Amino acid sequence: MLILGVDPSLTATGWGVIRMEGSRLGHIANGTIKVPAKLAMPVRLSMLFADVSAIIRAHEPDDAAMEEVFTNKNPQSTLKLGQARGAVMAALGAGGLDVAEYAPRLIKKAVAGTGTAEKRQVQAMVERLLPGARPDSLDASDALAVAIAHAGMAGRNRMMEGL
Question: Was 142 annotated as part of a binding site?
């Protein structure tokens, strides 16, 4: 099973694709979608949708997961993040993928063992759990962490179904 993890943002959206075979995980690809801040909002969202759609076509994932929205102190930032998430979610839906969402603390706990892990800790654990993975940014390592957390949840769900 191929899993696409996404860490949405309006400026730097991280993405990562992993393979899950039983309990084994492998790194396939990762990257960061950077959208110029000087462009008009509809253009930025359209670029984000197009880039995520291209990733889906290139890697043909079976499943997708992303971070749940969190609330910033700045309402404008929260709104912009919500718009970016909407563009990503629309691309995932248009690609025929169901989307699981996970809280940032749950993702950190699944990967680093604590829900308060720093970004560098998460990146170090991603590289340990996915030998050969060299995320090109902290956003990409966060996206790979989302995919790893989803793989763990998918494995637990299959195990529960077998009981």
Answer: no
Q: Is 118 marked as binding a ligand?
A: no
Does residue 51 have a known ligand-binding role? Answer: no
Q: Is 7 a catalytic residue?
A: yes
Catalytic residue among 51, 63, 139, 142: 139
Mean pLDDT (the chain) is 92
pTM of the shown model:
0.92
Domain ranges of the chain: 2-161
pLDDT of residue 159 exceeding 60, the answer is no
Task: Return the CATH fold of 2-161.
Answer: Nucleotidyltransferase; domain 5 (3.30.420)
pLDDT in tens, 7-40: 999 999 999 999 999 889 999 999 999 999 999 9
The DSSP code sequence of 46-103 is HHHHHHHHHHHHHH--SEEEEEPP---SSHHHHHHHHHHHHHHHHHHHHTT--EEEE-
